[in-house]
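Practice problem 4.
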C-alpha cells in the first residue's frame, strides 16, 4: 500500500517517487507525478528553493500499477508489446488439484502403515504428473506453489514438483520422472519418527537433537524398504537426498557418483525450498539470496542439477512488475534462460529496455 508523505527537498534521494506534479511558470509539467527522481531533478528542485514535496512510500498496489501503465507513452507501450516473449510452459496446479494433493500428502505422512499406502502415493504422484503433462511444462513459477500452510506437506509437494521439472531438464526418462515425484513426496517421511518438540523447536537444536534429526532420511528409507513396493531409485532418492558430492552430507557420507542421480536432483530442490521457507526457528531467505547460495554450493551439489534448476525456475514471470535498484518500476518482458534473476524489463520512467543479463550498462543493477 502506498502512503503519501511530505518531505524536505534537502533529504530527497534518487529513486524516490514523487507524488505530485512540478510545473513551471507557464504551467508546463517539468516533473510528472509518479516519476522516480534522479540526481538532476533533485538538484533542480533544490536550486528552485522548493522547500518540500510529496513523495509516495511503499509498494504500489495492482490498481496503481495498472494506472501508471495506462499513462505510459505510446512508445513505451509499443516497446513492451514488441519485446514481450512468452515464458516457457509452466506447471500449473489449480485449486482442486492443490486440495487433492494436499490431502493426499497429509494422509501419506499420517498413515505410513496403511495397506493402501502405495496406491495413495501413486494417486498423488499421478496428479502432479498430469499437471506437468497437461501443457508439457518444462518450467515452474516458484511463486505459485502453495499446497498447505503446514510445512512438511507443502515442502514435500514443492520438492516433488520442482524435482520432476528439474529432472526433465536433467534428462531423466519417464520412469525416472515418476520415481523422482514419488521420492520427492516421501523424502521427509522419516520425520514421522522424530518427536514434534524437536521438529518444531523454535530454537537451535542441541547436538543430540540434531544427530537424531539427521537420521530422518534413514528412517524414511527403512519405512519404505519394509513395504517391498518401491524401486531402488525411490529408496535411494529418499535415503540420499541430504548427501553431498564432496562427502559432507548425511546419513552415510557418500560422494560423487555414489549418490543416486535422483537424490542429486532432489537435493537442489530440497535445499532451495528449505532456504526460502519461513520456519518457527528461522526467517526465509529472499529468493535472490537463495539462488546465489545454490550457485555457491558447486562443490557440494551436482553441477548438472544446479544448471537444470536454474534453467527450470521462473521467479519473475513475463508481465510481472518489479522494482529495480535504481528505483524504477518496470515490467518483465522476457526471461533469460539459466539466469532467473536477470530478466529483460522495460522501465516505466525511462521507457528503456534493460537486459539485466547481457547489457553491460546493467551490470550493477538488480531487482529489489
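Answer key:
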Amino acid at each position: 500500500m502506498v502512503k503519501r508523505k511530505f518531505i524536505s527537498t534537502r533529504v530527497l534521494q534518487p529513486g524516490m517517487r514523487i507524488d505530485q506534479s512540478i510545473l513551471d511558470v507557464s504551467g508546463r509539467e517539468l516533473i510528472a507525478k509518479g516519476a522516480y527522481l534522479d540526481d538532476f531533478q533533485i538538484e533542480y528542485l533544490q536550486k528552485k528553493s522548493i522547500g518540500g514535496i510529496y513523495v509516495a512510500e511503499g509498494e504500489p498496489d495492482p490498481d496503481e500499477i495498472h494506472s501508471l501503465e495506462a499513462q505510459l507513452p505510446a512508445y513505451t507501450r509499443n516497446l513492451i508489446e514488441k519485446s514481450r516473449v512468452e515464458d516457457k510452459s509452466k506447471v500449473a496446479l489449480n485449486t482442486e488439484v492443490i486440495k487433492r494433493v494436499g490431502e493426499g500428502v497429509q494422509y501419506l505422512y499420517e498413515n505410513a502403515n496403511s495397506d493402501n499406502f502405495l496406491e495413495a502415493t501413486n494417486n498423488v504422484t499421478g496428479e502432479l504428473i498430469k499437471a506437468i503433462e497437461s501443457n508439457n511444462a518444462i518450467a515452474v513459477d516458484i511463486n505459485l506453489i502453495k499446497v498447505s500452510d503446514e510445512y512438511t506437506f507443502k515442502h514435500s509437494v514443492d520438492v516433488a514438483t520442482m524435482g520432476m521439472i528439474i529432472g526433465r531438464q536433467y534428462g531423466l526418462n519417464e520412469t525416472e520422472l515418476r520415481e523422482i515425484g514419488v521420492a520427492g513426496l516421501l523424502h521427509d517421511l522419516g520425520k514421522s519418527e522424530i518427536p514434534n518438540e524437536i521438529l518444531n523447536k523454535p530454537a537451535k537444536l542441541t547436538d543430540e537433537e540434531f544427530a537424531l534429526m539427521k537420521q530422518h532420511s534413514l528412517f524414511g528409507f527403512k519405512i519404505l524398504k519394509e513395504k517391498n513396493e518401491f524401486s531402488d531409485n525411490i529408496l535411494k532418492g529418499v535415503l540420499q537426498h541430504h548427501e553431498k558430492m564432496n562427502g559432507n552430507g548425511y546419513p552415510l557420507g557418500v560422494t560423487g557418483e555414489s549418490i543416486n542421480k535422483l537424490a542429486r536432483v532432489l537435493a537442489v530442490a530440497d535445499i532451495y525450498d528449505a532456504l526460502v521457507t519461513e520456519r518457527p526457528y528461522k526467517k526465509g531467505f529472499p529468493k535472490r539470496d537463495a539462488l546465489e547460495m545454490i550457485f555457491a554450493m558447486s562443490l557440494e551439489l551436482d553441477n548438472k542439477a544446479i544448471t537444470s534448476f536454474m534453467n527450470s525456475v521462473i521467479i519473475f514471470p513475463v508481465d510481472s512488475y518489479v522494482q529495480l535498484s535504481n528505483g524504477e518500476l518496470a515490467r518483465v518482458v522476457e526471461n533469460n534462460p539459466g539466469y532467473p534473476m536477470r530478466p529483460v524489463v522495460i522501465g516505466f520512467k525511462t521507457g528503456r529496455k534493460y537486459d539485466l543479463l547481457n547489457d553491460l550498462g546493467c551490470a550493477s543493477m538488480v531487482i529489489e
